[in-house]
Amino acid sequence: MDQVIRMIQDRTGIDADQARTAATTVVGFLKDKLPGPIASQVDGVMNGGDGGSSPMDRAGDMLGKRESR
Fold it and tell me: How many whole angstroms separate alpha carbon 69 and alpha carbon 31?
C-alpha cells in the first residue's frame, strides 16, 4: 500500500494523508465491485503478500491483464 501511496503523491502532488485516503477509497471501491474470489485477495495484494512483484503487477496478474515480458 505504501508504494501505491507514494505513486499517488508523485503523480498528483498531494500530501501523504490525502494520498492514503485516496488509495484506501479506491481499494474499498474495488473490493466492493470485484467478484468475491478476486475481492478477497485485494488486501493481500495491496500489502505486499506476493513477494517480489509490485502491487500494480500483482493486480494486473489477478485481472489477467499483465503482458508477457
Answer: 28
Neighbour count for residue 22 (Cβ, 10 Å): 16
- DSSP class per residue in the chain: -HHHHHHHHHHH---HHHHHHHHHHHHHHHHHHS-HHHHTTHHHHHTTTTSSS-HHHHHHHHHT-PPP-
What type of residue is 67? Answer: E
Each domain of the chain, given as residue ranges in start order, spans 2-63
pTM of the model: 0.61
**Residues 29-68: pLDDT tens digits?**
999 998 888 888 887 887 776 544 566 666 666 666 655 4
